């Protein structure tokens, strides 16, 4: 066994089947015969060796995946079972609906993130795989294997809630760049403790805090330009929300995934995610959030009538009040956030030849913003300046831009940097000394931070 390590993914999945090693071996042999491989006849000892780290030769990994998939009622690949040459496949955003296996996959993602530090290790999920994964995760129910309870107690649960709240406030105020590694490291520790076991009395608490932490890890990763990594953390957040009995928490996280798709120029995928979210949203706040975001996506697609229908639905929900007991994780969505969505929608429709006064909505958003949300306030300020340039008020726009740039320098965020590129585009037609100064400052600030396309 020198050089081998236990294949914990395979061990967990075989345990999930409830079948003995002998029965697993018998079913593999039967499946092999069905596929024309009569020479494959493993026994219980061979199955144990695979769990202990021995790698079976093809086509055994495929046969084993087929047998376990049928037994647990969930499609699995050899990579899901840890049977690929490079170890467990961590490229998919799909998570096994097993507490310890999901936590182990999360641990793998955090290890790749913290120690390998490669942005290209994971691939961004797009199209049908992304939409289907979100739908499956929102509707999934996990099966628990580990009966041990040494991973969490009341004190560690409280500490997890407190540190997550601290990081959330810091991110909203300053951007996530400074804190991202610490947040991911905290999530890695949570993954380790979940594998040790969560007491039934603390399950809802632990997984609710874990969902918050994973959602935050995804958001700060997105804000630092690590888009595929963000997807993985968000997928675990949806899983944890389901474990906590908070389906609407998972819906909110799906809206973050949709925001990323808009940001990266995939509005069709964003719309697909929001359709999944809309079917699961129950709380007034999450329903309003989904409607507002859906309206924004339709604006990006140029669907003016659909955009107004969804934005109008959000208007009504916000005007009626989002409830007296809005959960903290969605409390950021309020009249100010919706005004920001309306502003960006107006900007996008103007960009395709359907002029709208985006500056009015950006002004509304700024007037309504609560203290503590400095990053989004800066984004609104930059958006307002860009809108004023687009609407022809160059002098007013330049003054607004200088104020925005003063504040943008204090926030570490690719989202803000991307808005600066939008500002540069809007200022391009103007050639005055005041606008040239704005252009120089915006270029210098945007160049100091990584960015992709307009947010």
Would you kindly provide a written description of the structure presented here, covering whatever features stand out?
Among the domains are: 89 residues, no CATH class; 153 residues, no CATH class. The protein is built from 20 helices and no strands. The C terminus is likely disordered. Helix 2 packs across helix 4. The termini are far apart. By secondary structure, the protein is mostly helical.
Give the secondary structure arrangement, pairings included.
Elements lengths: L7 H10 L3 H14 L9 H8 L8 H13 L26 H18 L10 H12 L15 H21 L5 H17 L6 H21 L3 H17 L3 H17 L3 H14 L3 H17 L3 H17 L14 H17 L6 H11 L5 H17 L3 H15 L5 H14 L5 H15 L8
Helix pairs in contact: 2-3, 2-4, 5-8, 5-10, 6-10, 6-12, 7-9, 8-9, 9-10, 9-11, 10-11, 11-12, 11-13, 12-13, 13-14, 13-15, 14-15, 15-16, 16-17, 17-18, 17-19, 18-20, 19-20
Task: Give a brief description.
By secondary structure, the protein is mainly alpha-helical. The chain is built from 20 helices and no strands.
The gyration radius over C-alpha positions equals 24 Å
Described by the principal axes of the CA atoms, the overall outline is elongated
Largest sheet: none
Number of helices: 20
Overview features:
mainly alpha, disordered C terminus
């Amino acid at each position: 066994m020198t050089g081998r390590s236990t294949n914990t993914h395979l061990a967990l999945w075989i345990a999930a089947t409830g079948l003995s090693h002998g029965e697993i071996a018998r079913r593999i042999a039967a499946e092999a015969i069905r596929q024309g491989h009569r020479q494959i006849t493993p026994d219980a000892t061979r199955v144990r060796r695979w769990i202990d780290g021995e790698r079976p030769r093809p086509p055994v990994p495929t046969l084993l995946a087929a047998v376990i998939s049928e037994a647990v009622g969930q499609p699995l690949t050899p990579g899901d079972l840890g049977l690929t040459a490079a170890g467990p496949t961590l490229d998919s955003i799909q998570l096994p609906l097993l507490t310890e296996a999901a936590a182990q996959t999360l641990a793998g993602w955090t290890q790749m993130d913290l120690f390998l530090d490669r942005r290209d290790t994971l691939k961004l999920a797009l199209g049908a795989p992304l939409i289907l994964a979100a739908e499956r995760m929102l509707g999934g129910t996990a099966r628990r294997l580990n009966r041990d309870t040494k991973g969490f107690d009341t004190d560690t649960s409280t500490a997890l809630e407190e540190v997550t709240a601290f990081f959330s406030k810091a991110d909203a105020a300053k951007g996530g760049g400074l804190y991202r590694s610490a947040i991911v490291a905290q999530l890695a520790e949570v993954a380790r403790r979940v594998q040790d076991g969560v007491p039934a009395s603390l399950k809802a608490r632990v997984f609710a805090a874990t969902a918050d932490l994973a959602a935050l890890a995804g958001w700060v990763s997105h804000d630092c330009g690590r888009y595929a990594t963000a997807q993985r953390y968000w997928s675990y957040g949806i899983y944890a929300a389901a474990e906590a009995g908070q389906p609407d928490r998972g819906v909110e996280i799906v809206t973050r995934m949709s925001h990323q798709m808009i940001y990266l120029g995939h509005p069709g995928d964003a719309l697909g995610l929001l359709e999944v979210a809309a079917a699961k949203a129950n709380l007034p706040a999450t329903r309003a959030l989904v409607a507002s975001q859906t309206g924004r996506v339709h604006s990006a697609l140029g669907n003016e009538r659909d955009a107004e229908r969804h934005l109008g639905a959000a208007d009504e929900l916000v005007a009626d009040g989002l409830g007296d007991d809005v959960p903290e994780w969605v409390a950021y969505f309020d009249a100010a956030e919706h005004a920001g969505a309306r502003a960006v929608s107006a900007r996008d429709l103007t960009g395709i030849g359907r002029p709208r006064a985006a500056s009015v909505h950006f002004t509304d958003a700024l007037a309504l913003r609560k203290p503590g949300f400095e990053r989004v306030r800066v984004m609104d300020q930059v958006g307002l300046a860009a809108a004023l340039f687009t609407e022809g008020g160059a002098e007013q726009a330049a003054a607004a831009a200088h104020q925005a740039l003063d504040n943008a320098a204090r926030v570490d965020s690719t989202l803000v940097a991307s808005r600066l590129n939008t500002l540069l585009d809007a200022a391009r037609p103007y050639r005055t000394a005041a606008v040239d100064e704005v252009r120089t400052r915006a270029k210098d600030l945007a160049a100091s931070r990584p960015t992709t396309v307009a947010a």
